[in-house]
Specification:
It contains 7 helices and 14 strands. By secondary structure, the chain is an alpha/beta fold.
Length: about 260
C-alpha cells in the first residue's frame, strides 16, 4: 500500500490497481473564505496550494471516500472533478442524499458499525465526534472508516473527531496497522476545538497499535497546531518513530 498525503485531510490510498481519493479539497489557494477571523489570522482557505506532484495521481483515481460534507473535505472544485470524471463515491448513509443531489456518483453507502464488502475486502463506518462539548452538534455528522483490503495492511481513517470511546475501541479491538488522525486542533472564533487537542493526539498515537499518520495540518487557517509543534511533542513522548507527519505531496509506503 502507498499513501500520498495531498493537503489537509486529502489523501490518496493506492492498493494494487485501486487509487482511492479521500476527502478531496481540490480548489486553488485562497478559493474559500477564512474559517476563523479572531483566534487565527484571517487568511483565505486553503492557505497553501496543491502539491505539484498530485495532478498525475489525480488522473488515475478510481474511487473516492468522503467522511463528511464540510468544504475542507469536499469543496466545489472536488464536486466538479468527481462529477465530470464520474468517479465512484463511497460515503456515509447520512450523506448520500446530499451528495446525489450534487450529481456525485454514489455507488456505496456505509453505516456505523456495519461491515460491508468493499473492493474485494471490507469497510466499516466508525462514529466520529467533530468537537468538544456543544460545538459537535452543529458540526454535523462525520464518519470514520475502518478498511481491510486483500493483502494490504488495515487502515483506520478516524476523520474529524475528538478522542472518544469509539475511537479507543477501534484502536484497541480492531488493531489497525495504520491509523490516520486529524491533528490540527481546528477551532472557530468561539467554542472549544473541533479536533483533538495535541494531548489527545498523543493519546491516540500511544494507543494505536501500528503506524500513525497525522494530517489536517497547516492547510486551513483555523488549525493552529503546526507540524513542528506536533513533531516536538511526539518526540518528547517517544512516539515519533511510529508516526508520520508528512509534508504536502509526500508518499508513504507501507507493507
Amino acid at each position: 500500500m502507498k499513501i500520498q498525503h495531498v493537503r489537509n485531510a486529502t489523501m490518496v490510498i493506492e492498493a494494487d490497481n485501486r487509487v482511492i481519493l479521500v476527502d478531496p479539497m481540490l480548489g486553488p489557494k485562497g478559493a474559500m473564505p477564512p474559517f476563523s477571523f479572531i483566534r487565527s489570522k484571517p487568511i483565505k482557505n486553503p492557505i497553501v496550494p496543491l502539491p505539484d506532484n498530485f495532478q498525475p495521481v489525480l488522473e488515475r483515481v478510481t474511487h473516492c471516500l468522503i467522511t463528511h460534507q464540510h468544504p475542507d473535505h469536499i469543496d466545489k472544485a472536488a464536486e466538479r472533478y468527481l462529477t465530470k470524471r464520474n468517479i465512484h463515491v463511497i460515503c456515509s448513509v447520512l450523506d448520500e442524499k446530499a451528495f446525489r443531489k450534487k450529481g456525485l456518483n454514489v455507488v456505496q453507502v456505509v453505516e456505523y458499525w456495519k461491515r460491508a464488502d468493499f473492493l474485494g475486502g471490507k469497510i466499516e463506518g466508525i462514529p466520529a465526534r467533530h468537537g468538544y462539548g456543544f460545538i459537535a452538534k452543529p458540526a454535523g455528522n462525520v464518519m470514520g472508516f475502518f478498511i481491510e483490503l486483500p493483502n494490504q495492511p488495515s487502515i483506520y481513517l478516524s476523520s474529524d473527531t475528538i478522542y472518544t470511546d469509539d475511537v479507543d475501541k477501534v484502536l484497541t479491538d480492531y488493531q489497525p496497522a495504520i491509523s490516520v488522525v486529524a491533528a490540527g486542533t481546528a477551532r472557530f472564533d468561539i467554542f472549544k476545538p473541533l479536533l483533538m487537542t495535541v494531548k489527545d493526539v498523543v493519546r491516540f498515537a500511544k494507543n494505536a497499535p501500528g503506524k500513525v499518520i497525522a494530517n489536517h495540518l497547516e492547510a486551513v487557517n483555523h488549525c493552529p497546531t503546526t507540524r513542528k509543534d506536533l513533531s516536538h511533542r511526539l518526540m518528547h513522548e517517544g512516539l515519533l518513530k511510529k508516526s508520520y507527519i508528512p509534508e504536502d505531496g509526500d508518499w508513504i509506503e507501507l507493507n
